[in-house]
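Quick illustration, no need to memorize.
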Amino acid sequence: RVLFRSPILSNSELLDTLKTYIFLHQNVTAVAKTLFVHRNTITYRLKRVSDILGVDLEMPDVLLDIRLALMLL
């Protein structure tokens, strides 16, 4: 519900990072390798996503909601 009205949808960099993070089971190192960026870049992007959405990306229920929203996109 939060993701569908978010500015993240118009930011392909953040959206790709979030999608990759969710589907690689929150493995920041794997996300960095997949997106060909430094691990710190992924951490920074995820912090931005968390701030924009106003959620904690470590919470299982949040991750489930985001995963379902991404599947619906």
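The mean pLDDT is 91.
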